[in-house]
Design a protein that fits this description.
This protein has four helices and 14 strands. It is an alpha+beta fold. It is globular, with a radius of gyration of 23 Å. The protein starts with 8 loop residues before the first helix and ends with a strand.
């Protein structure tokens, strides 16, 4: 009969290390594969003509209709729901059993509710910061093309390998992660097809997400309903827009 080995501290440590390697090695191998396959250095563009190309993209998306849209409501990935009053720069953010009334001009005026009961204190400050982070990220996936002339942005044109021109937009300030860059790939009319991302939160530079599932809303603004990001899908549902009379 085979004799059982005693569980000495050394053997327990070896087992723990083995388990860690078993679960982390496939992840590391996958990351290495994706890194060498997709990672790209941030391209260098030229400023000449970038304003014209940016305006062409805005015109293709009916920017004037978006500009005159006062209210946008949407659900992001079935997790976060937003009621954004663009005209007043406020937004109701919903997730789980929380609701945060964000004042986007002055976060100190924001209010937090849990199960419809108003809460205050340090915990509410953390929830306000979380709501701001959700809004910054989730609204960007909704309206990013309309933000190419935001304060602190820099625009250049990058010539792709196939000879087409793409619009590189860098956000030097604002949002939750200033310094991020996005390279917009456009069709012949200037309408976005996809963008590549160089961001602080992604470990691989130059990853691409689609921007081709568009809907024309009630106000005429064009907004996306779905993004394909590698093997992932980013759903944007329940989009509603309106204008003040």
């Amino acid at each position: 009969m085979r004799k059982k080995k005693k569980l000495t501290p050394k053997r327990i440590l070896k087992i723990i290390i083995g388990v860690i390697v078993f679960f982390t090695l496939p992840t590391l191998l996958l990351y290495g594969f994706l890194y060498f396959k997709y990672n790209e250095a941030l391209p260098v563009g030229k400023e000449a003509g970038s304003e014209t190309l940016a305006l062409k993209m805005l015109n293709a998306l009916n920017y004037e209709a978006y500009k005159s849209t006062d209210y946008i409501e949407w659900t992001f990935k079935k997790r976060h729901h937003f009621k954004w009053n663009k005209a007043e720069n406020t937004c109701e953010v919903y997730w789980k059993n929380y609701k945060v009334n964000l004042d986007l001009n002055d976060s100190s005026k924001s209010e937090v509710f849990k199960n419809d009961t108003k809460t205050e204190g340090e915990n509410s400050k953390e929830l306000i910061e979380k709501a701001i982070s959700y809004f910054n990220n989730d609204s960007f996936w909704l309206v990013a093309p309309y933000k190419v002339f935001d304060d602190g942005t820099q625009r250049t044109i990058v010539t792709l390998e196939n000879g087409e021109e793409a619009l590189l937009v860098t956000y030097n300030s604002g949002g939750s992660t200033p310094g991020d860059s996005y390279l917009w790939h456009l069709d012949n009319t200037g309408k976005p097809k996809s963008f590549q991302m160089w961001t602080s939160i992604l470990p691989i530079d130059g990853l691409e997400a689609t921007w081709n599932d568009w809907t024309t809303t009630k106000t005429g603004a064009m907004l996306p309903t779905f993004h394909k990001f590698m093997i992932l899908g980013i759903e944007i549902e329940g989009i509603k827009t309106s204008q003040s009379q």
